[in-house]
């Protein structure tokens, strides 16, 4: 089946967690809003909701035959077992989803570090507030989340979050580390020595053949100042 | 099976979405941290993570036999099909979960209206920032989310989100409306006439016999100023 992914064409954002899973799976997919003839209007048409019954609130969403699935973690919940990206047992799938939802929470906080007042205002209109929130994020929240995943990894000899086998939350944790390195290089330089298992996981994920090929390709959108992870030096002190 | 719910004992918070599902199901459950002999230490012991392999990042979590499931939406994903709170088809379950995750996103924004800089600071230490964020939340975000759910309801003659049958996202949307009425009574008074289907759903949910009995019981913790929904008149203008 050829999947259709709908997400903003110029940022990694939430869509990147789905792109990474599709790439690791070697799945056949179109990144619809990045196609010259389709673009953002194709995405907006779906959100307009005249064409189908189950309207997404926001991108990303994945079209798979008649199914249209939104919410990043929900897409991965559906996609992963179809491509061997999660073990088959119900307990393992719930645990993988739980980890993914925890990463989703972390991602919101990474975004809100530069947009604490709301996405409708420019960063420039919320700089003092961002400074306070980013200071708290780098000093307290990043260590809390990194420490959590490090503890999870410490229970598993395999070096993967689920133990024994690689799974999609490994891709997502690796993406978080890449994003935090882009946004907060100084904070990460200070923190990384404390979380060697998470950093090792990131290295192993990015060395996987399909992921390495993807990251080196034009399909990978570079980090930039419109995405969820943004580098403002004044927020990384 | 007797479930064990672990959540903070003095607030509704995220745990309330699970409590409502357990109550509607007539399930046998213990609200462990509210038991006199167990309390918060029983909850903290789990987070300490010495007793089991799959550590939750935060409450709520549900113990069901050997399973320990965290993340509110993940708990409901697992619980609902076991108690007839969601239709059986995969497409319906994904759609219900997608709606629940959208409510979870909304809930974070309701919280951040009074804590835009972070949960580690008192509200009193982020009042000017809260004023800006709450103004944006009530003027833009509440209508956006309410409008989304109203559109979903407009596609279904049944008055329930999934169409045809009552399901757990109906409980969650009802709880959002109750919480927003507590936190932002003036904003809600202004907005409610625009979203009659959502308000009617709330009335129908709270009139269901088990839910009505629960809401009238001592098991229902009243809204208060420590929870996710808080009423600060200066944020509701």
Written overview of the protein:
- Two copies of one chain form a homodimer.
- The longest helix of chain A has 28 residues, at 127-154.
- In chain A, 52% of the residues lie in helices and 6% in strands.
- In chain A, a hairpin with a 2-residue loop joins strand 3 and strand 4 (67-70).
- The termini of chain A are far apart.
- The mean pLDDT of chain A is 95.
- In chain A, helix 1 (15-25) packs across helix 6.
- Chain A is built from nine helices and four strands; from the N terminus they run βαβαββααααααα.
- At the A-B interface, strand 4, helix 3, helix 4 and helix 5 of A face strand 4, helix 3, helix 4 and helix 5 of B.
Q: What features would you highlight for this structure?
A:
237 residues, globular, homodimer, 9 helices, 52% helix, alpha+beta
Number of helices of chain A: 9
| Span between termini of chain A | 47 Å
| Fraction of residues in β-strands of chain A | 5-15%
- Main sheet characteristics of chain A: 4 strands, mixed
Radius of gyration of chain A: 18 Å
Q: State the low-pLDDT regions of chain A, or none.
A: none
- Global outline of chain A: globular
Mean pLDDT of chain A: 95
Q: Going across the biggest sheet of chain A, name each strand in turn.
A: 2-1-3-4
Helix content of chain A: 40-55%
Please tally the β strands of chain A and state the result: 4
Largest protein interface, residues of each chain: A-B, 42 and 42 residues
Which assembly state applies to the chains in this document? homodimer
- Class based on secondary structure composition and strand pairing of chain A: alpha+beta
């Amino acid at each position: 089946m050829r999947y259709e992914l709908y997400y903003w064409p110029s940022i990694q954002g939430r869509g990147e967690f789905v792109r990474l899973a599709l790439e690791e799976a070697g799945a056949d997919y179109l990144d619809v809003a990045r196609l010259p003839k389709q673009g953002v209007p194709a995405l907006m048409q779906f959100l307009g909701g005249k064409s189908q019954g189950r309207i997404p609130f926001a991108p990303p969403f994945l079209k798979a035959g008649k199914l249209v699935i939104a919410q990043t973690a929900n897409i991965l919940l559906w996609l992963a077992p179809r491509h061997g990206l999660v073990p088959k047992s119900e307990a393992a799938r719930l645990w993988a989803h739980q980890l993914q939802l925890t990463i989703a929470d972390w991602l919101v906080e990474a975004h809100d570090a530069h947009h604490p007042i709301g996405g409708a205002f420019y960063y420039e209109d919320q700089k003092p507030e961002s400074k306070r929130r980013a200071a708290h994020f780098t000093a307290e929240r990043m260590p809390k989340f990194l420490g959590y995943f490090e503890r999870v990894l410490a229970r598993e000899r395999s070096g993967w979050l689920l133990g024994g086998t690689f799974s999609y939350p490994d891709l997502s944790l690796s993406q978080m580390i890449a994003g935090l390195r882009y946004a907060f290089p100084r904070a990460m330089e200070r923190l990384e020595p404390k979380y060697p298992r998470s950093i090792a996981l990131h290295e192993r994920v990015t060395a996987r053949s399909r992921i390495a090929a993807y990251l080196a390709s034009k399909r990978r959108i570079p980090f930039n100042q419109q995405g969820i992870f943004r580098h403002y030096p004044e927020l990384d002190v």
